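Schema walkthrough. Field components (list of strings):
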Amino acid sequence: MKLDDPRIKRIIRERSLSFCLECGKCSASCPRMLAGKEYSPRLLAQKLITEPEDEAFIENSVWECLTCGMCEERCPSGVAYSRFILDMRTLLAGTKGLKGYRSHDGALHSWMRLMTSPDLEQNRLDWIGPELRVKGSGPLAFFTGCAPYFDVFFSWIEVDTLSIARDSIRLLNFLDLVPVVLGEERCCGHDLLWTGDRENFETLCRQNYEEFKAAGVQEVVVSCPECYQVLSQFMPQVIPGFDLKITLLLELLDREIRKGGLSFQPLPRRVTYQDPCRLGRMSGCYEVPRTLLSLIPELTLAEMENSGRSAICCGNNGFINCDLYSKRIQVERLKEAKATRAELLVTACPKCMIHLTCAMRDPLRQGSLAIEIRDLANVLAGQIEWSGGEAPIGPHNR
Amino acid sequence: MARVNLLGICCSWSPFACYNAAGMARMELPSNFDLIRVMCIGRINQALILRAFEYGADGVILLECQDEDCRYGPGPEVGHNNVQRVRKLLHLLGIGQKRLVEKNFAANEREELVAALWEFARDMEAMGANPAKPSQEREGP
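Field assembly_structure (string):
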């Protein structure tokens, strides 16, 4: 890597790295550093600008980042740190190959790459039962993401990611919306993008876009924050003339509920909420989940010590670099959740659910971190009803 | 018939003894078959099986010891569990569960092993190329 490499210079310029004041707020708030890892966003920025010949350090640091966005949230100079890491990973992957330890030995990245095959004929809709109303073409689609795959792959930690997809469709059906669910929808490519595999990511984007277009879709409803970030922020960069409307399920619900006529059955529980990084810091959606929770009668929301803009990462992102420091972050996060005396941890991202559940199951902790964890879509679908007292779609009514 | 890429993942103990004996006896094996020798099938995880398909295999056969013969303990059992889980993923991907085969051998079963490989090759050739084959560059070493 040369000091005057124009590609590095461009990344430094585009991501405002030269604005760094070396104040160190990024490193002081980095969850990975707080967990004890020798990793410093500030030092990486400094090395890249003044000492780019230290390639080993730079490469290690680039692949170590969680891309949770905490550092850029705190940065007083507006350095776009996550995007900087993303650009650097894409660049390094192109010149030196993909690095970084892939969790589960890269099984997830493998199936994501397998999905780039043009002749793919998936069997991904087996989970849609007769109780759900979906169709094959129309203006509104629901994006399932990798839920059917996670359901198989993470069955051993008993995370039911398909229930999120089912409940999302039930909520749409409740609002009398019948979404298109595509049989050949592919992964949104989030994990490939954030681990440097831009080429396969772009292929997935194009394939998904073509599938949507072929089904006459104009608006895509997404429940997963990662899919939402990719479809709304990255897909338009890849597809020229991108004209799909991307809607977050929670925002759609918020809008519909404001129209009146809907209410929620009481849920007498104390809950706490984990802000997913892709929903909060990267998409700016902090209030909507809290508003929706506040609409449920008898539900008490107890915030964790670090919540909202300061919410701590679930420990891992893009299924890369899960290590003992990730585990430490997860343990700390779960301790914060337990400290709120909440009985239920609500999150809005299947990845948070997977990672935190995995940490809870550590046999050495003997269940001391265990707390019920559910997705916000599950909670809402269990309680929503028409204000007239018409039958809710709660679990007892399925 | 279409030429297909076949991959065997072979435990270094009983099945490899069979494979070696078959080679010593100059028994004929399918020409489009590659073998990866591992210390134990328990070493293989879901990711490595999936990666074989990602890298262009049309069929994968796991050659394992008999359950009670494992030199390490749980090898074949780990193999069975991984095969069960990966088959579900292969079904989702439309690759087909039958493209992943699992066979157990005792150390003296060289004829059985060769017959199993030919049967595997015939089945995979009948099924043809794997529909989910990424055309792009794969993950580096």
